[in-house]
Amino acid sequence: MAGYTEEELAEELKNQEYKFGFVSEIESDKIPVGLSEEVVRIISAKKNEPEWLLDYRLKAFKIWEEMTEPEWAHVHYEKPKFQDISYFSAPKKQYESWDDVDPEMKATMDKLGISMDEQKKLTGVAVDFVMDSVSVATSFKEKLGELGIIFCSFSEAVHDHPELVQKYLGTVVPSSDNFYAALNSAVFSDGSFCYIPKGVRCPMELSTYFRINEAGTGQFERTLLVADKGSYVSYLEGCTAPQRDENQLHAAVVELIALDDAEIKYSTVQNWFPGDKDGKGGIYNFVTKRGICQTNSKISWTQVETGSAVTWKYPSCILKGDNSIGEFYSVAVTNNHQQADTGTKMIHLGKNTKSTVISKGISAGVSQNSYRGLIHIGKNATNARNFTQCDSLLMSDRCGAHTFPYIECNNNSAKLEHEATTSKIGEDQIFYCQQRGLTEEKAIGLIVNGYVKEVLNKLPMEFAVEAQKLLAISLENSVG
Amino acid sequence: MSKVLLDIKNLHAEIEDEGKQILKGLNLTVRAGEIHAIMGPNGAGKSTLASVVAGKDGYEVTEGSIEMDGKDLLELDPDERAKEGLFLAFQYPVEIPGVSNINFLRTAINEIKEYRKEDPVSAKDFMSMVREKSKLVELDAKLASRSVNEGFSGGEKKRNEIFQMAMLEPKVSFLDETDSGLDIDALRIVAAGVNKLKNENNAVVLITHYQRLLDYIIPDFVHVLADGKIVKTGDKNLALELEEKGYDWLTEEKAL
User: I need a surface site. Which of A16, A176, A194, A388 has the fewest CB within 10 A?
Assistant: First the structure.
């Protein structure tokens, strides 16, 4: 991050409120509230889906009806009223090409800092933009196509590459996995699909930008990413939503499949609206993310979680193949009344599998921040290794940091390490910085960025800078 | 006579939560170009003096004044005091994991420059400054790119303090027991660094327990701080006398 200076950070900080809280005036097609088999059929029909996908949804809906919401997480909130949510909202117009895109939509994307025009000029990041329920635009499609890489909205993939979708959908996160995964499987509207062919190294970062715009809706997107044998891809995901008094539900499912010798790097900067300082409004972020690793493959999750009123999220790796590697690097910040229960599961099944977990929690205000992690070593997972480090930093004396590490070890050759620290941001550190001429705010920014550096270093450059700014904004005036 | 850089008058200060009075009417005048040494028994208030001057939380000034180069320091936040040219070399330098020394110092320098309405230092000038100043205290250039004080030995931490002092070019520097925990070689290096930084426009206040440091940094004045006040002031010979006789005779003398 050498290119980004403290001065630039300070400049950014002047705009300290949640700057994505605007609403765009875009005509949308939104179905009435409520959830029933009928609604599931309507969604499927609206998207003109094949029979097999409708069956998949209906099955999931039946499963969901039988399930109850999980209550084991260390979070307290008023449960969403599932019959008061609209399960489908789409910007009314459909676009053939980027040039046809509604100017208001383009303006929205500009405000979010994802200008497709810019993107076209710079060889940097290919973007898929998902607003409310549908994917709006995907850039760089042709260029990627030359390499055989498929990067498109989920709906397009259903029509253009049904064999791939049908082969992999639900293989990592079955509909019955949990309450929200079942809900998502029944009503998901769109999302991103990505396929990297054998031996191809994706030459650019692929990125999906999620945005909730409409009031009274939920967002249920689905991401499916398949890295075929010996391929490599780095994938980024960003999220924002308008500032509203109501709690909106976001229940996504992300499935990653790394075939033999493949590598997937998946990075998230999550900045859904966290609610106001009194805890009113904000997004419920109940997300299931999981990847499966075949032989010699690697999946690396990196997440920076600063938003949402309530977060419930455990990006996980199933290390099925021998010598496969799973990594999880996380920074979770909670301020004011935010609550986060996040962590990972590393399921070691193959021999010589390795996993690394680095979790950095930062709690401020009256927030509650929990790390929850499971390291499972299967009986055939000879020589499995895990290293877990989970650190908590407290910024005030009214917030909470909690750690729930679980270990299940069924093979005696495994080596597991767990390190954990909890500390309050040091007044002596702040004073030391102040004595060298830094204001208190600057001092805190510097100390916090130092604390999370190990994780931010794992992010692609553009995202690291973004994340650094976000952290500073999230923690304004938070020491007490 | 040269200009007064630091003027402390009748300073009374107590620990905020306990209400325990530590400084009880301390007077100290430091002029440009001078080196002052403050010695005294444990618990006399030496480190408290440094903390109060720097504006550390947890102390309350109940009476008196501190002026630096004409500015009322008590009106200013700790970072503003630093920006006005006050430097404190810490007795126990603090570690800041993940923040490189270089990033830390560049941020500090640019903050100070902005306060003084000067242009920020360019990367090139900054790096050549780092090279030049790290030589002053024979600080390994590698340490400059490591996290602030993290994994530094005791001696390296103290040298790093003087390196920072060199980089920030303060008007008035308080060195709080910079000699403690140093072996004789490190002590010589640190002292040589301080001597090189000293000029007719700045001033240094050394807080120390031992005369040893004063063999290398020759003070213009030696003050004895006991029970929250300066009880005796002399030249460098006073330090030698203290080394021989201890402090008791002074506190007794005062009692008489």
Answer: A16
Q: 3-class SS at A255?
A: strand
- 8 Å CB contact between B143 and B104: no
Pairing of strands A134-138, A221-227: unpaired
User: Inter-chain contact B98–A428, Cβ cutoff 8 Å?
Assistant: no
Cβ of A11 under 8 Å from any chain B Cβ? no
> Of A429, A437, A450, which is closest to B111 when you measure between CB atoms?
A437
Gap from B169 CA to chain A (nearest CA, Å): 11
Contact A406, A375 (CB under 8 A): yes
Q: What is the pLDDT of residues A3-19, one digit of tens each?
A: 444 455 445 444 445 65
**Alpha carbons B45 and A149: distance in angstroms, whole number:** 71
- Nearest CA among A216, A222, A202, A342 for reference residue A270: A342
Outline where B55-209 has alpha helix (H): 78-83, 101-115, 123-136, 141-145, 154-168, 184-197
The pLDDT, as a whole number, for residue A453 is 86
Torsions phi, psi of B44, nearest 5?
-75, -20
Q: What angle do CA B239, B245, B247 make, to 5 degrees?
A: 75
Residues of A within 8 A of B78 (CB-CB) are 431, 434-435
A374 in any annotated domain: no
Q: Which residues, including other chains, have CB under 8 Å from residue B127's CB and lie 6 or more apart?
A: none
Quick one: tokens of A250?
């976001």
Choose between B243 and A63: higher pLDDT.
Answer: A63
Distance CA(B94)–CA(B16), nearest Å, equals 22
DSSP string across A85-122: SBS-EEES---SSGGGS-HHHHHHHHHTT--HHHHHHS
A191: left (phi over 0), alpha (psi -120 to 50) or beta: left
Closest approach of chain B CAs to the CA of A154, in angstroms? Answer: 40
Listed by start position, the domains of chain B span 4-255
The answer to whether residue A469 is domain-embedded is no
> Do A432 and B112 lie within an 8 Å CB cutoff?
no
Q: Is residue A399 part of a domain?
A: no
A119-169 pLDDT, tens digit each: 443 334 555 666 554 555 556 677 788 899 998 888 889 999 999 999 999
ipTM of model over 0.90: yes
A375 in any annotated domain: no
Q: Which of B110, B111, B157 to mutate to test the interface with A (most CBs of A within 10 A)?
A: B111
- Residue of chain A nearest B95, judged by CA positions: A429
The CA distance from A363 to the nearest CA of chain B, in Å, is 18
* Mean pLDDT score, B69-92: 95
Q: How many CB pairs under 8 A join A and B?
A: 88
Please answer yes or no on whether A434 and B79 come within 8 Å at the CB atom.
yes
For residue B83, how far is the Cα from the chain centroid?
15
Q: Look at A438 and B108 and tell me if their CB atoms are within 8 Å.
A: yes
Which residues of chain B make contact with A458, given a CB cutoff of 8 A? none
* The CATH number of the domain covering residues in B4-255: 3.40.50.300
The neighbouring-strand residues paired with A363 are A334, A394
Structural domains counted in chain A: 1
**By CB neighbour count within 10 A (0-12 exposed, 13-18 middle, 19+ buried), where does B118 fall?**
exposed
> Among A450-464, B42-56, B83-97, B145-159, whose mean pLDDT is lowest?
A450-464
Domain span at residue A224?
19-313
C-alpha distance from residue A97 to each of A46, A129, A157, A363 (Å): 20, 13, 17, 44
Q: Is residue B164 less than 8 Å (CB to CB) from chain A?
A: yes
